[in-house]
Amino acid sequence: MKKKDKAKLTIQKNINWFKCTICGQGMDLRLNSIICKQGHNFDLSKKGYVNFLAGPVQKIYHKKIYYARSELCKRGFFDPLVEKLAELMAEELRHSSFEPFKFLDAGCGEGFILANTLHDLRQRSGCMCQGFGLDIAKEGIQLASRDHPEIFWAVADLANLPFQDNTFHFLLNVLSPANYQEFSRAITDYGTLLKVVPGKEYLQELRQKIYKGTRREFYSNIEVIERLRENFNIMDTHSLCYNILVTGDDLEHLVKMTPLTWGASQDKINWALKQEFQRITVDLFIIRAKKSAF
Q1: Domain count, the chain
Q2: Where residue 179 sits, what CATH number does that domain have?
Q3: Omega within 30 of 0 (cis) for the link into 100
Q4: CA distance linking residue 221 with residue 226, whole number of Å
Q5: What is the DSSP secondary structure assignment for residue 292, as one 8-state letter?
Q6: What radius of gyration, in Å, describes the C-alpha atoms of the chain?
Q7: pLDDT tens per residue, range 17-27
Q8: What does pTM read for this prediction?
Q9: What's the CA angle centered on 159, arms 195 and 174, to 5 degrees?
């Protein structure tokens, strides 16, 4: 089955979950478009994704970032994170009677984490799971739809999700900006938000090379966690720290992938690329949270 046809089938089965990002009305599937009752039209691309943006957006992330991240993912950069996320979700599913389970990765990038977490979760739990991934960057969604056509992908803004209230049992937000008002709206009353933020030692070897002697040499996630706490009830947290062997083009991919390097001069980046790194620290902090009203 073609990617476009797979996406149409997913939309058709779940059309009641979608809402128009312009007027908020419900949606219908007509031929190769999702159309709301007010006539706002969102076309399904040949590559199998839908663009729900009402207009052009300023580019922050570029194609090279997602290709670099995709290459690192294939080499195992996020494998321990995928395993931990699947473990946490499988633990919750053992105590839940809802099925099929609906998962949204808000800020999914090239889609690796969502696709592989769902694969791991299905193997652990045997549950029926439907995955949805969205990102504001079309370049990331194009890669995601190419590599993982079994999942529905959309170009959309985190501040204006194209889904009805109380739709998702799990919402993933991994190393990405958040909009907690929209997240709370889209998650079911007893659903779970899994947010992943950097730990203080995340990419510390690279940070020390580029920002030695400046305030950016060190990182704290305290403000990010407190903002989440203002909007959700934090149930528990999990620290995940591991080292990745850096070989070949890995360092260049890493430099392109991470926003950590965005504030650095090109001279500093070029100098860092010439340094010898044997291993890079991946320090992640996973927060499991529920809606504040529950």
Answers
A1: 1
A2: 3.40.50.150
A3: yes
A4: 9
A5: T
A6: 19
A7: 999 999 999 99
A8: 0.91
A9: 20
